[in-house]
Amino acid sequence: MGEMSDYIAGLEGPERDLIERIRARAVSLVPDAVEGMSYGMPALRYRESPLLSVVSAKGHIGLYPFSPAVVSAVETELDGYSWSKGTIRFTAEHPLPDSVVDRIVLLRRDEIDAAKKR
Fold this sequence. Notes:
The protein is globular and about 40 Å long. The chain is α+β, with helices and mostly antiparallel strands. Strands 1-2-3-4-6-5 form a six-stranded antiparallel beta sheet. 42% of the residues lie in helices and 25% in strands. The longest helix is centred in the last third of the chain and has 20 residues, at 98-117. It starts with a helix and ends with a helix. Helix 1 (3-9) packs antiparallel against helix 2 and helix 2 packs across helix 4. The protein contains four helices and six strands. The chain has helices at residues 3-9, 13-29, 68-73, 98-117, and strands at 34-38, 41-46, 49-57, 60-64, 82-83, 88-90. It has a single domain (3-117), classed as Alpha-Beta Complex (Aspartate Aminotransferase, domain 1), CATH 3.90.1150.
C-alpha cells in the first residue's frame, strides 16, 4: 500500500468510501499516478508533481488539486459547495459529482503535462 491507501484504510464510514471512490476514479483516469505525499498530505502524484489529495477534516472533506487554475476552471460547477483557490470542500451527504471530479483530475493532469513540456 501507499500513503493515500494507508490513510484511507484508517478512515471509517461514508467518508472512507467516498475518498476511496475519488482515489480510484483518479487512478483510472491517470493510470501513471502513484501514491505519495504533497504539502504534508497523502496524495496522488503524476510525473513527480502533485495531482490530487482528498482528506477528511472536521465537518467536511477537502479535495486539493494543487492548482488555483483548475479550481477556477470548474468554479461554475461548484454551486452549493464551499471552495477557495486551493481547495473544494464537500461532505459525504453532498459529494462532488463524479463528472466534476473527473474534470478536475483531467485538467490537473493536462496542466502537469504542459508544464513538463516546457
